[in-house]
Write a structure and sequence with these properties.
It contains no helices and eleven strands. The protein has strands at residues 3-7, 10-13, 18-25, 34-39, 46-51, 59-60, 68-73, 78-83, 92-99, 111-114, 118-123. Strands 2, 4, 5, 6, 9, 10 and 11 form a seven-stranded mixed sheet that branches. A four-stranded antiparallel sheet has the order 1-3-8-7, with no helix packed on it. A hairpin with a 7-residue loop joins strand 5 (46-51) and strand 6.
């Protein structure tokens, strides 16, 4: 199983940017698609973005398309989420997840390993 640790969260003003990172341990990282999900207070966890094993075929939620970019560096066992033009509605705990297969997915059930999450707060 892949162990995941997120970093890079924080407090930012609306319109600002943050870059989240997720460091993975385990020799299978390059054979897993990776994803980011988020959960706002009182709401269900929702899909944000995912990327396939080689760094291609990114998928994005409609709410973040054009503002967020997912990428990965298999040499560093790390996946990133660049978040630009942040809005107050982006405020949530952001979770990194490793899929059970090679290819991108927006279904949380396809992801078997999860990090502890990092808080992102966007002030208006």
């Amino acid at each position: 199983q892949v162990q995941l640790v997120e970093s890079g969260g924080g407090l930012v003003q609306a319109g600002g940017s943050l870059r989240l990172a997720c460091a993975a341990s385990g020799r299978t990282f390059s054979r897993n698609a990776m994803g980011w999900f988020r959960q706002a207070p009182g709401k269900a966890r929702e899909f944000v973005a995912s990327i396939n094993w080689s760094g291609g075929s990114p998928l994005y939620a409609n709410s973040v398309k054009g503002r967020f970019t997912i990428s990965r560096d298999n040499a560093k066992n790390t996946v990133y989420l660049q978040m630009n033009s942040l809005k107050p509605e982006d405020t949530a705990v952001y979770f990194c997840a490793a899929a059970r297969m090679l290819y991108s997915s927006d279904y949380s059930s396809d992801f078997g390993s999860w990090g502890q999450g990092t808080q992102v707060t966007v002030s208006s």
